[in-house]
Amino acid sequence: MSSDALNVLGTPLEACCRDPMTGYYRDGYCHTDVSDEGLHVVCALLTDDFLAFSRRRGNDLQTPRPELGFPGLQAGDRWCLCAARWDEACHAGCAPPVILEATHESALRVVSLKDLKAHAVGRPPL
After folding, report:
1. Which of 18, 56, 90, 122 has the most CB atoms less than 10 A away?
2. InterPro entries annotated for this entry (predicted)?
3. d(C-alpha 83, C-alpha 25), whole Å
């Protein structure tokens, strides 16, 4: 993956989370390439409301799936979300906060910068 990836602010992409290890490549970053059909590029601070919304939409992020190396997530975890799911949650009124510095610029193909900024939080430590 290119080390010159940029975030939605146009600055170098920062890590989203290493515990649990997130990202399409499970390297802690929300970067992407053409093989990432879900565009897992929005670094979000998960909430109970969003986790329940995602489960209702058919994507249970809370149940551990050890066979897939997936630990299961809980409110307070940071995770690289699919841009379209975050946008869907935004329009449903339950989008989780985002960390702009760790959200890949390609999110802007799906989500407006205005919406991302409206849900931005300060960069919590990894």
Report:
1. 90
2. DUF2237 (IPR018714)
3. 16
Separation of alpha carbons 51 and 57, rounded Å: 10
Integer Cα distance of 124 and 126 in angstroms: 6
Q: Are 106 and 41 in contact (CB under 8 A)?
A: yes
pTM value?
A: 0.91
Q: How many CB atoms lie within 10 A of CB 57?
A: 12
Choose among 18, 1, 4: nearest CA to 80.
18
The half-sphere exposure of 46 on its side-chain side, counting CA atoms within 13 A, is: 25
Helix (H, G, I), strand (E, B) or coil at 67: helix
Residue 3's pLDDT band (cuts 50, 70, 90): low
Which domains are delineated in the chain? Answer: 6-119 (3.30.56.110)
